Amino acid sequence: TSATPLARTPISGALIVCIENDAAILDGMRTLLKAWDAEVIAVADPEGAIAAIEAAGKRVTGLLVDYHLDRGNGIAAIRDIRRRFGDSIPAILITADRSPAVQSAARDEKIAVLNKPVKPASLRALLGQWRTQQMVAAE
Questions:
Q1: Partners of 43 in the β-ladder
Q2: Could you tell me the pTM of the whole model?
Q3: Distance between CA 115 and CA 67 in Å, rounded?
């Protein structure tokens, strides 16, 4: 927390989709993002995310996806969601896997990587970049 309260966080009003198969981590992410005034779709799998995005009927600001999912991996999930809802949706892959193969695969898909355990300050900085990218894209 900082001494000067911010009226709006960098992600205020953003629609962020979290895909994480660990219920406790998913709940923590939802709580953190809501505290930053974001709208959150928090689900355990890509199919649930796609259904929830369609139901929301709003443009997705970005994706936060765990690498190790019950079925498949986070990079494939991000690829599927982008194919359906827009190739330019920013995404962050959250992983404990620090292997060059995962880093390289994420980079090839233009996906940022945050290693577990996720530091809220690092996450917030990346989310702030999404806002900047979208403002530039809208000009």
A1: 19
A2: 0.89
A3: 10
